[in-house]
Design brief:
Layout lengths: L4 H13 L15 E8 L11 E6 L2 E7 L9 E12 L1 E6 L9 H7 L2 H17 L2 E6 L4 H13 L6 E4 L35 H14 L4 E4 L18 H13 L4 E5 L2 H10 L3 E4 L5 H10 L2 E3 L2 H11 L10 H7 L2 H11 L3 E2 L15 H8 L4 H7 L2 H7 L16 E4 L15 E4 L2 E5 L2
Parallel strand pairs: 1-4, 5-6, 6-7, 8-9, 9-10, 10-11, 11-12
Antiparallel strand pairs: 1-2, 2-3, 4-13, 13-14, 14-15
Helix pairs in contact: 3-4, 5-6, 6-7, 7-8, 9-10
Length: about 450
């Protein structure tokens, strides 16, 4: 539907006043949208580029010019000339179907997949409004994960573009075994279709099941975890041969593999097995850093989750008792380990583990990364151009360039001087559609 000049003027006023503006939409043969940016961070270069004018047509960036250019006829103008504009951010480790709370373990028995999907719509909207236009969801109930991703893709639900792993692959009793912590009457022996792998043949079957489930990525739990109902958060839980079988089978189906891994030996096995990313990487040593660089693997540090669980471990009753000592010990190490990995030259991709920590708090990770020694611009790249390449969508998004999707956000201060500005997103556009606009 075309928009008249009068309607365009009204839409401009609505953007100026703030709030969600569903009508400002550079998709579906609508009028051009012009954005005046006070400062532009494009996600590719190492310097902010000053004032620029972006023209968006059919959800795609048509032109980017320095200064304040004259708008095309009938254009909708969005004035962000007192703000910094940058690409939509990406988080490589979220769990969109839930959020940590003291009742989370009881909710395993009281909530259904439909409940998770509905909660997911709330968390998806919160994440998008925090400036994250793309996420990788690394573990959730199969049908609910798929339903949420597909609803967002259809435009039925507001949320970030989602790449999903559905359920993770674990060993019996390992982090991710869905029967952990259940009493004898409720417990069962999960199969590879449930995501439990105990042999090379199991590994192949489990990957093929995830393909059938509609996954975009494969996630394995290479070591114990903090929040699973098991004593160890570090022990290795797959052999190198099992990991390699998962990775090789995944390649046949166009998948890459992410590995949850805290313990040193399990991290090294995962890297040698060919995974694309190490999630958390808490107890990496110098040999692991060298292996990461040799194999081109990425660390997704999730400092936010480490800090969150350490804080909550001090609250009696927040976590089951078997979890509290793991949360208290592993959490504080995550930031110092990130510093060591960064200084060693390991590839870093932005990720938070939101769902463990609150959805919408994703941008706190930038502060923790900068505190850990990373320059603000490099931290921004880790959540834009770097993550786009990791997902294989660098031709579509991740930087502000002509021909790419209009995924962009605005913040009221210069994030290169004050990285906490990224926690105060005032404007969000995804694919040319405005989802958030604040005065």
């Amino acid at each position: 539907m075309r928009t008249s000049r009068v309607q365009s003027a009204l839409l401009i006023s609505l953007v100026t006043l703030g709030g969600l503006v569903p009508g400002v939409d550079a998709q579906e043969n609508g009028p051009p949208t012009v954005i005046y940016a006070g400062s532009l961070i494009d996600g590719a270069t190492d310097e902010a580029r000053g004032a620029h004018t972006l023209v968006i047509v059919d959800g795609v960036i048509q032109s980017i010019e320095a200064g304040r250019g004259a708008p095309p006829p009938n254009a909708v103008v969005i004035d962000l000339s007192d703000q910094t504009v940058l690409p939509g951010l990406m988080d490589m480790h979220v769990h969109m179907l839930g959020e940590s709370n003291p009742a989370a373990y009881l909710q395993r028995y009281t909530l259904n997949p439909a409940d998770a999907a509905l909660k997911g719509t709330v968390y998806a909207r919160r994440t998008l409004e925090a400036g994250f236009t793309t996420v990788r969801d690394l573990g959730g109930e199969v049908t609910a994960s798929r339903a949420l991703r597909d609803a967002i893709n259809r435009g039925d639900v507001a949320g970030p573009r989602m790449f999903i792993a559905t359920g993770s692959l674990a060993s019996t009793g390992g982090h991710g075994d869905p029967s952990n912590g259940l009493n004898a009457r409720l417990s069962w022996q999960p199969t590879p279709s449930d995501g439990v792998v105990n042999s090379i043949d199991d590994a192949r079957q489990a990957v093929r099941q995830r393909y059938k489930d509609g996954a975009d990525w494969i996630k394995i739990t290479a070591t114990g975890g903090v929040l699973s109902m098991a004593a160890s958060g570090q022990n290795s839980q797959f052999s190198v041969d099992e990991i390699r079988a998962i990775v090789d089978t995944a390649k046949d189906y166009g998948f890459s593999v992410a590995a949850h891994a805290h313990g040193t030996e399990g991290i090294k096995r995962a890297i040698r097995g060919g995974v694309a990313t190490i999630e958390h990487g808490t107890f990496m040593d110098d040999e692991a850093f060298e292996l990461m660089k040799e194999h081109g693997a990425f660390l997704v540090p999730t400092i936010s989750a480490g800090r969150f669980v350490a804080e909550k471990a001090a609250i009696p009753g927040y976590f089951p008792e078997v979890i509290r000592p793991k949360a208290a010990s592993i959490g504080p190490i995550s930031q110092s380990n990130f510093d060591r990995a960064h200084k060693a030259g390991v590839n870093i991709a932005f990720g938070t583990d939101c769902g463990v920590c609150p959805h919408g708090s994703n941008a706190k990770e930038f502060l923790y990364m900068v505190e850990g020694g990373m320059a603000p611009m490099k931290a921004i790249h880790s959540a834009t151009s770097v993550t786009a390449k990791l997902l294989g969508i660098e031709d579509e998004t991740g930087t502000l360039e002509v021909g790419k999707q209009a995924d962009l956000i605005a913040v009221p201060r210069d994030p290169l001087r004050d990285v906490t500005a990224l926690q105060d997103v005032v404007f969000v556009m995804k694919g040319g559609r405005v989802y958030k606009s604040s005065p």
